[in-house]
Amino acid sequence: MDSPPIDTLISAERIQARVRELGAQINRDYAGQSIVLVPVLKGSFVFAADLARAIEVPCAIDFFGCRSYEGTESTGVVQTTLDLSKPVEGKHVIIVEDIVDTGLTMKYMLENFETRRPASLKLCSLLHKAARTKVPIDIDYLGFEIDDVFVIGYGLDHDELYRNLPYLGVIRG
Ligand code: IMP
Questions:
Q1: In angstroms, rounded to a whole number, what is the distance separating the alpha carbons of residues 172 and 18?
Q2: What spacing in Å lies between the alpha carbon of 70 and ligand 1's midpoint?
Q3: Which residues does ligand 1 sit against, CB inside 6 Å?
């Protein structure tokens, strides 16, 4: 199968520099505390792996899976595909997301996590598409604001492909 041409939106170097900045900000904000990072599968697995290695405060990692997309379209229905392995009651939780697009997934997740009574709950998202907002979401740690384009790479997929690209790109055409 031939791969279509892909235009680079954000290079691997820019991503790595920004991830280091986000890690430094988290280290300052949580100095003297420990945290639980909750990467949202599947899209944030690459970002979370890099972010975790930029974090120096004691840090547990537990995964949460949900999906709302088929191909390039949100189905509007959010499904949990994997739950946490341990309760997070009394813990400082940071949800790690790849992209906040309409905001529907994060609204669902934040409401779900509030019921688990964490000591604090924050959101770190690599990307945000403001033009697509249906539900406004406060992002505590944001990598990049992007235009209304469908992005792939660095964990993000198109029909499950391209997650392994080290940069963020857009399929041409
Ligand atoms: P939301 O519920 O519309 O905010 O969508 C959030 C989820 O949709 C993200 O976690 C991604 O998995 C997926 N998504 C949204 N936009 C893109 C994109 O441009 N590329 C790949 N996945 C996307």
A1: 25
A2: 10
A3: 43, 68-69, 74, 97-106, 150-151, 156
Distances (CA, A) of 32 to 29, 35, 92: 9, 10, 12
Nearest alpha-carbon partner for 152 in 52, 66, 69, 37:
69
| pLDDT mean by block of 10 residues, the chain; 173 residues | 90 98 98 98 97 98 86 72 97 98 93 96 97 94 97 96 98 90
Decide: helix, strand or coil at residue 159: coil
Evaluate the omega torsion of the peptide bond into residue 107 and state whether it is cis, within 30 degrees of 0: no
pTM over 0.70: yes
Which residue, chain included where needed, has tokens 């403001």? 130
Catalytic residue among 101, 138, 148, 157: 101
N residues, the chain: 173
Handedness of CA 165, 109, 138, 150 (dihedral sign): positive
Pick the CATH number of 6-69+76-171 from 3.10.580.10, 3.40.50.2020, 3.40.718.10, 3.30.1360.70: 3.40.50.2020
Residue 95 carries which side chain, given as an amino acid letter? I
